[in-house]
Amino acid sequence: MTSARSFASHAAPPAHTKLLDDRRFRALLPDEDWGRLPVATWRRFSKRVCDGDSVVYVGLIDEVMFSDIGWWLAQAARLIGGPLPTGRDTGVPMIVTVTEDAASGGQIWTRICARRSGFPQVIHSAKRFDGPTGLEEYVGFGVCMALRISVVDQALRFRSAGYALQVGRLRLPLPAWLAPGEITVTHRDLGEGAFRFTLDVVHPRFGALIRQSAVFREAVS
Question: What residues does 60 pair with on adjacent strands?
């Protein structure tokens, strides 16, 4: 495991971008749970830009951890577009771009993880407000993951709830041995305009473990 304490980052849409009220994430939680979130988290997950516009978040990776099997799992995932982090560097920037997708009514996510040497890793995915839990993430080659949202210790948590292969209109569930394990993404407000995104991948059978955490700070508008 490696870590770094300092960070300097910002998150804001371009000055010309119009922000809209967004209830898509709130609709997936009971009112009581939504009410337990910090106000800053409400605001981040209740703002929506117009179709085709983007919001860019710039932060700093401050923790990375792989078990031996977890590192090989991340390499194997390159076969379906590389949805898992592969770098071990900390103290390097992470850039996240969220673009509204008019075609699906969801969001296109692009994550750029810098490296101290060589090219950065780019991870693409698409969130759609559909499927058995109301939220899915597509990572490439038709592979998708259903997500459940919950509130834990005033943090917003997204947890995997099954994997499938989308072939045209067919949705084929993937067996457990083909799945990477349980994936959890946590958004935790740190106060004073800062927040942390943490990705955890745990495979209980094979002992695979991956963690990547980054801290972002919002720009003052």
Answer: 215
- Quote the tokens at residue 217: 């700070």
Mean pLDDT of 162-169: 92
What is the token pair recorded at 143?
Answer: 């592979």
SS (H, E, C) 77-138: HHHHCCCCCCCCCCCEEEEEEEEEECCCCEEEEEEEECCCCCCCEEEEEEEECCCCCCCEEE
The Cα 177–Cα 80 span in angstroms is: 16
| CA-based nearest residue to 147, from 135, 156, 164 | 135
Q: Residue 118 — left, alpha, or beta (φ > 0 → left; ψ -120 to 50 → alpha)? A: left
At 194, which helix (H) or strand (E)? strand 194-203
Letter string b/e over residues 155-182, b meaning 16 or more CB atoms within 10 A of that residue's CB: bbbbbbbbbbeeeeeeeeeeeeeebbbe
pTM, full prediction: 0.88
Spatial contact of 101 and 218, defined as CB atoms under 8 Å apart? no
Please classify residue 97 by burial: count the beta carbons closer than 10 Å to its beta carbon, then call 0-12 exposed, 13-18 middle and 19+ buried.
Answer: middle
Cβ(13)–Cβ(62) below 8 Å: no
For residue 38, pLDDT over 70 is answered with yes
Interatomic CA distance for residues 181 and 220, integer angstroms: 38
